[in-house]
Specification:
Leucine-rich repeat, LRR (right-handed beta-alpha superhelix); 5 helices; 29 strands; elongated; disordered N terminus; binds 2-acetamido-2-deoxy-beta-D-glucopyranose
Length: 432
């Protein structure tokens, strides 16, 4: 598009905007000779310019409406053709533009600016909207229930603002919704049952809010679509429903950390064999982890720390060859560690603050390991010299166990080590 204006000065900010503003040009050519008109979209841009209070990248200060008419008017008609407006990753601050003039807009992305406004009801006049991204601004107030009238919306992403109020049940009317991201706001109330009508949704991210109530069983209606479910860091409680893995078999990420869930992790999750992330840390979960975990052969992250899990680990854990992070610390696990030698992708392993016993597990093949914390358990016997094979290690904590014998000289080859804690054991000999 910039090539259509060979004589136009092109400061970088203008080039960026030209790249980000997409007009549906059809077959028409840009012709600056035709007199400008007052299209609704130009009025819109003028109003937006008027509303913003800071424009460090200088686009609006370098923009004037006659220049813009030259760029966008004439044979294009007027900016009511605007289909996509992407002003993301700038430093616009102040108010949101008066959206009601952009009646054909399909994609609106004002993410990563410094907009401080509430989301206006007038957004519902942009009835062609398919994607709205307003992430990482300072938007305040409630999500207008009328957003539920945007029947073609497939992406609503309001991540990281200061929004309050409830999740409007009206959102359940937008059956074309595929991705709903309201994470990192201050949204309260329970998760409305109406979300169970969004049977095309694959990504639901509601974490880092103040949501309460139980696990949203309405989502079991989304069994064919839902792949990512993020509910971490809320105030959700009660049990995780036993049938979750059967009713949401396509889950790839289940993220429930920092809540107050209690009871056991349902064995049915073994049926959700596409799971890559399973994040339950910091809840009130209990019981043993069953052999079913071994069915999740795509699992990359298993975070179970800071719960009240008990018993020995299932031997099938050793089959999860894609695992990169395994954190089981701060529980009441006990018994010996099953063979983990096949977990060659493992980068972080924490078993700290449990009652695990037996010898230190054989880990010499886990050469990707950077973080190993076995502290405050009941491991006995010597420190295996083969720990010296773990050349990537920067954190090694074997403190508060019953380890005996010398510090193996091989540990001296761990040249990446940043933290080594062997305190409170029964080690003897020289420190060489
Ligand atoms: C556009 O609007 C301005 C002020 O609102 C007016 O002065 C001008 O005549 C209008 N131009 C056209 C082409 O309508
Ligand atoms: C803007 O474009 C639309 C669609 O072509 C047209 O109907 C309308 O008359 C134009 N508005 C003005 C003010 O020219
Ligand atoms: C506005 O654009 C017109 C036409 O391109 C140009 O002649 C004029 O100098 C511009 N004004 C400012 C303040 O940049
Ligand atoms: C807007 O542009 C940014 C940067 O080019 C891009 O990452 C983002 O996906 C775009 N937004 C939409 C909704 O396409
Ligand atoms: C929506 O558009 C209609 C018709 O263009 C207009 O009458 C109404 O005021 C607009 N609503 C809002 C909230 O801007
Ligand atoms: C919604 O999408 C359908 C199918 O693409 C289209 O026919 C319809 O015009 C759209 N509705 C609006 C209000 O844009
Ligand atoms: C959420 O609300 C609490 C208390 O009302 C407030 O302290 C906190 O700053 C708010 N957080 C955000 C992200 O708005
Ligand atoms: C939208 O949802 C609300 C509440 O869920 C419901 O009362 C209303 O009838 C729905 N409206 C439409 C147009 O479907
Ligand atoms: C499940 O989805 C269907 C549409 O596919 C809808 O009619 C029904 O109300 C939904 N049930 C729940 C509990 O949300
Ligand atoms: C966890 O459960 C215990 C006992 O069941 C209870 O006292 C405690 O308050 C719970 N903690 C949380 C964070 O819910
Ligand atoms: C789902 O998991 C449960 C518990 O592990 C098991 O009994 C059931 O047979 C599984 N269902 C399917 C369809 O695999
Ligand atoms: C080493 O481990 C002990 C026991 O777990 C702990 O009290 C101490 O703070 C740790 N030392 C360092 C430097 O982290």
């Amino acid at each position: 598009m910039a090539s259509a204006h060979p004589n136009r000065p092109r400061p970088p900010a203008m080039l960026l905007l030209l790249a980000l503003l997409h007009f549906s040009l059809g077959a028409s050519k840009i012709n600056c000779a035709t007199p400008p008109d007052n299209s609704t979209d130009v009025l819109w841009l003028q109003a937006f310019k008027h509303g913003i209070t800071s424009d460090p990248s200088g686009w609006f200060s370098s923009w004037n409406s006659s220049a813009n008419h030259c760029m966008c008017s004439s044979s294009i008609g007027n900016l009511t053709f605007l289909r996509t407006l992407n002003l993301s990753k700038n430093s616009f601050s102040g108010r949101l533009p008066p959206l009601n003039h952009l009646q054909k807009i399909q994609v609106l992305d004002l993410s990563r600016n410094r907009l401080h406004d509430s989301i206006p009801d007038a957004i519902t006049n942009c009835s062609s909207l398919r994607k709205i991204r307003l992430t990482t601004n300072f938007l305040v107030g409630e999500i207008p229930p009328k957003v539920g009238l945007l029947s073609n919306l497939s992406v609503l992403d309001l991540f990281a603002n200061n929004l309050i109020g409830i999740i409007p049940p009206m959102l359940g009317n937008i059956t074309s919704m595929r991705s709903l991201v309201l994470a990192a706001n201050n949204i309260t109330g329970s998760i409305p049952d109406e979300l169970g009508k969004l049977t095309n949704m694959w990504n639901l991210a509601l974490g880092q809010n103040m949501l309460s109530g139980g696990f949203p069983r309405c989502l079991f209606n989304l069994s064919n679509s839902l792949q990512i479910l993020g509910l971490g860091s809320n105030m959700l409680s009660k049990e995780v429903p036993p049938n979750i893995g059967d009713d949401l078999p396509n889950l790839q990420m289940l993220v429930l950390y920092d809540n107050m869930f209690e009871g056991q992790i349902p064995a049915s999750l073994g049926n959700a064999t596409g799971l890559e992330w399973l994040v339950f840390k910091n809840n009130n979960l209990t019981g043993m982890i069953g052999e079913w975990i071994g069915k999740l052969t795509r699992l990359q992250r298993l975070y179970l720390q800071a719960n009240s899990f008990i018993g020995p680990l299932p031997s099938s854990l050793g089959q999860l060859t894609q695992l990169r992070y395994l954190t089981l610390g701060n529980n009441k696990f006990e018994g010996p560690i099953p063979p983990l030698g096949q977990l060659t992708q493992l980068e972080g392993l924490s078993l700290a603050n449990n009652k695990f016993g037996g010898p230190i597990p054989l880990l010499d093949q886990l050469t990707q390991l950077t973080y190993l914390d076995l502290g405050n358990n009941k491991f006995g016997g010597p420190i295996p010299p083969t720990l010296g094979n773990l050349q990537q290690l920067w954190y090694l904590d074997l403190s508060q166990n019953n380890l005996e014998g010398n510090i193996p000289i091989q540990l001296g080859s761990l040249t990446s080590l940043y933290k080594l804690n062997l305190s409170s054991n029964k080690l003897t000999g020289k420190i060489s």
